[in-house]
Amino acid sequence: MNSKDCEDSAVDCGKVDYGPEHIMVVDDEAGIRRFAARTLEKLGYSARLFADAEAALSEALTGDFALVLADVHLPGHDGRWLLDQLVTAVPDVAVIMITGDRDLELALECLSRGAVEYLTKPVAPRDLAHAVGRALENRRLRLENQAHRERLEELVQERTRSLLEATRALEESHKEAIYRLSAAAEYRDEETGLHIVRMARYAAIIAEELGQDEEFVRRLLLAAPMHDVGKIGIPDAILLKPDRLTPEEFEVMKSHTLIGGRILAGSNSPLLKMAETIALTHHEKFDGSGYPRGLEGEAIPIEGRTTGLADVFDALTSRRVYKPAFPLEEALRIIESERGRHLDPRVVQAFQNRLPEILEVKKAHGDGEVAGSPLSGRAGIEYRHRLR
Ligand SMILES: [Fe+2]
Ligand SMILES: [Fe+2]
């Protein structure tokens, strides 16, 4: 990355602070140390001299060196040991190895272990100057690239965060619009419109317990409130009838699933597609006796099975024009008795596993109703009639 790229790039390259580029010379021969120090100082570098690898390493760990010139042959730990330690512990330091015996294999081994260059003794001042210049320049480029990459990563994370925030804000406004419009569809037969808030949350909790991914659960939370939009096409005389529906009236009532499906059909939005599926399948039953298509078992999409249970549980525990709210114990008993019949056993199990959270939702978004007296036989039949 050169400065021109930095100017052209939308990314701030960031300044890399190289500090004073101190150089360390590690050689057991005093003459070589003096020669290197003189040459480097003439070139404007500051050099520190060490006769053995251990002392050099403990100083290098301070992180204040840009370059280490190390003899391969040292008393005690040799130059290769020092090279290995430096590569691991201070990876920003460039290392040039110096070998006295023109041993090409040894030099190549040092390069493969991470040295940037090697010099053979006797080292000419010009060769030393060139090697040091190249090593420092490469180090600068490496550090600049690294800083640039880090800055890019930060930028990507920052933008992902703002994108997520924007998406969340958009989702919130979608959510509000969905809930308001769905509440409008429920307006005639729901007293407070809280049914859709509760049942969507119940469904989301159940789906989460069933191991559905986060995206699915979030989508379900937004799609479930639309399950009964088709009620908009059902006449008041049927929708609000406090008595038992005649078979003809019930046929009309059942059509709210198909009307809802039609209202939501044809969208490319995954959310509306899911809402369409839910509208069409939330009255299907696990044993195949539901409507509109009489789907059976896992042929009923999971979003239909989860919202189906959530809808039933909330209908049972809420007052409706045709029935009082049932006591919780009674509602739970009915849910259990419908395991494998109306309801998918796995979905019932997930509901029961997360019952404490479901009851929290019920408490937080309740209609403030007092539950009616325990079910009479007729009320039970009425429930089945309505939700059949
Ligand atoms: Fe429905
Ligand atoms: Fe409902």
Can you tell me about this structure?
This protein is an alpha/beta fold and 388 residues long. The chain folds into two domains: 3-156, Response regulator (Rossmann fold), CATH 3.40.50.2300; 187-387, Hypothetical protein af1432. Helices cover 57% and strands 7% of the residues. It contains 17 helices and five strands. It has a five-stranded parallel β-sheet, with helices on both faces. Helix 5 links the parallel strand 4 (94-99) and strand 5 (117-120). The longest helix has 62 residues, at 125-186. It is rod-shaped, with a radius of gyration of 38 Å. 33% of the residues are buried. Residues 195, 199, 227-228, 311 line the site of one fe (ii) ion. One fe (ii) ion is lined by residues 195, 199, 227-228, 311.
Number of domains: 2
Question: Low-confidence segments, ≥5 residues, pLDDT <50?
Answer: 1-14, 369-388
Main sheet specs: 5 strands, parallel
- Specify the CATH class of the largest domain: Mainly Alpha
- Distance from N terminus to C terminus (CA atoms, Å) equals 69 Å
> What is the rounded Rg?
38 Å
Strand percent estimate: 5-15%
- Mean pLDDT, to the nearest integer, reads 87
How much helix, percentage-wise, in residues?
A: 55-70%
* Order of secondary-structure elements: HEHEHEHEHEHHHHHHHHHHHH
> Architecture of the largest domain, according to CATH?
Orthogonal Bundle
Question: Which hetero compounds are present in the coordinates?
Answer: fe (ii) ion
Total number of beta strands:
5
Write the CATH homologous superfamily of the largest domain: Hypothetical protein af1432
CATH topology of the largest domain: Hypothetical protein af1432
